Amino acid sequence: MKRKGIIFNIQKFSVHDGPSVRDVVFMKGCPMRCVWCSNPESQNPAPELAYNRRKCIGTEVCGTCMEACSRGAVRADGEGKIEIDRSLCRVCHDCEKDCCARALVIFGKEMTVEEVMAATLNQERSWRCNGGVTLSGGEPLMQAEFAEELLKEYQRRGVHTAIETTGRAAWADVSRAARYCDLIFYDVKLMDEEKHRAYTGVGNRLILENLKRLSKIYPDQELIVRTPVIPGINDSQEELEEIVRFLKELPHLTDYELLPYHSFGSAKYGQLGREYSLEGLKMPEKSVIEEWNQRYRKELFGNVQ
Question: The pTM is what?
């Protein structure tokens, strides 16, 4: 039987997830619940139904989704739209298939390695400038065996491979993916364990330990550590300098990058029946983040990369 993974998006022509032009394969499931997460649809490892109220044309002229749902999970909300009882929903696709406005969408689809390859290798000329494929999420290492098979097959075909990981996984799973990666993006969000637990739902000891082992055991891979800068959470100089001090002890590090917080994914929380707790939080000035990036790169590498 062919191994299958749960994929919730394949983004073509990305220029932000590795060298040159790339395809990014977004894999479902994450062990963390970062309050600033821009991909909330990635967290649940199983497929899930999203409802975009703005796209819905209303129950007065439509209502086919309610007729299609045999469990009564989709019903009128009394305001001309629908609501979803997620305790009854079994993500059976019936309402999604009947929604002509595409207001109902299921995030997450079972795909084999061959199906993912077919969806990404159909435009190889887009990689003519040394691009490739990046596995992202969620946390790809929650589907470690599937991720390993994908990365191995891409490398066999001469495609540059990268992975974006939180590092929150068993070392065996980190290692099985790392050996087939040309580039590893690794997140370090906070050094204080209790604060890390408060804002991500988990501690950071395993994450930091895996990073030290990764740097030591796989020195030939490009290793880029990234920190999302979240105002009021980890944007103090003391916290960022603590991360830099830790990174100085790594035997191998290619680059360090600060990423400015953004709220672009906040609307998806409502579509999934959740609340976004950072509503109204302002994005940091890009010029400030650029200045900090230069400062810490100089401190780590002796020059501005």
Answer: 0.94
Question: What pLDDT was estimated at residue 126?
Answer: 56
Distance CA 143, CA 136 (A): 11
Tens-place pLDDT, residues 86-110: 999 999 999 999 999 999 999 999 9
- How far apart, in whole angstroms, are the C-alpha atoms of residue 125 and residue 299? 39
Q: Tell me the backbone φ, ψ of residue 104, rounded to 5 degrees.
A: -110, 125
pLDDT per residue as tens digits for the range 163-222: 999 999 999 999 999 999 999 999 999 999 999 999 999 999 999 999 999 999 999 999
**Cβ neighbours around 270 below 10 Å, total:** 16
Strand-pair partners of 109: 7
Q: Give the separation between CA 305 and CA 303, rounded to whole angstroms.
A: 6
Q: Let me know if 213 is exposed, middle or buried by CB neighbors in 10 A (0-12, 13-18, 19+).
A: middle
Report the C-alpha gap between 208 and 245 in whole angstroms.
13
Confidence of residue 112 (pLDDT cuts 50, 70, 90): very high
CA 20-184-215 angle, 5° bins: 140
Burial of 11 (0-12, 13-18, 19+ CB in 10 A): middle
Instruction: Give me the long-range contacts of 151-158 (CB less than 8 A, separation at least 24).
Output: 151/177, 151/180, 151/181, 152/180, 153/113, 153/117, 154/117, 154/180, 155/180, 155/182, 157/121
